[in-house]
Amino acid sequence: MAQIHLEVVTPSGPIISDEVDIVTAPGYGGEFGVLANHAPFLSTIKIGTLSFKKDKQTKHLMVSGGFSEVSNNKITFLVESAEYGQDIDVDRAMRAKERAEKRLAQAVQQAEKINRARAEAALQRALARMRTAERARQ
């Protein structure tokens, strides 16, 4: 099976650079998949799970917003953060979810738009971490 080169890069540095069989990612327009020799393509990336398959093994990364580009049989993701599902501390993610829910409730009561947006983003990251960790453990 033909492969595509996958690169995931964060401000901290590269997370992966490898040949893979397929990549699925959370685009703002919906989840999309990319195989080898895909047509050139640009997309924004939202908080969620990026999955890729190599040698019949699927791996999952939690990614926080960014961009992706497909060109010349290579897909590159420039994201704010990324972590492998098996490395996610689920208890920590649960605590972050609970904190975000409390902050969100307070922001709604006080009509604070900035704190509400920050709390919603924190909640989305915590939920994505939990979903990605669950997928990685299956």
Structural summary, described in words:
It is a single chain. This protein is an alpha+beta fold and 138 residues long. Helices cover 33% and strands 47% of the residues. It is built from two helices and eight strands; from the N terminus they run E-E-E-E-E-E-E-E-H-H. The chain has helices at residues 90-110, 113-137, and strands spanning 4-10, 13-20, 22-27, 30-35, 41-45, 48-54, 57-71, 74-84. The longest helix has 25 residues, at 113-137. The chain is elongated and about 55 Å long. The model has no long low-confidence stretch (mean pLDDT 91).
Q: Structural class, from secondary structure content?
A: alpha+beta
Strand content: over 45%
The radius of gyration computed from the alpha-carbon positions, rounded to a whole number of angstroms, is: 16 Å
CATH superfamily of the largest domain: F0F1 ATP synthase delta/epsilon subunit, N-terminal
Q: Could you name the ranges where pLDDT drops below 50 across 5 or more consecutive residues?
A: none
Beta strand count: 8
Counting copies of identical and different chains, the oligomeric state is single chain
SSE run: EEEEEEEEHH
What is the share of helical residues?
25-40%
Instruction: State the separation between the terminal residues, measured CA to CA.
Output: 25 Å
Overall geometry:
elongated
- Specify the CATH architecture of the largest domain: Sandwich
User: How many domains is the backbone divided into?
Assistant: 2
Broad CATH class of the largest domain: Mainly Beta
Helix segment tally: 2
Major sheet characteristics: 8 strands, mixed
- In CATH terms, what is the fold-level topology of the largest domain? ATP Synthase, domain 1
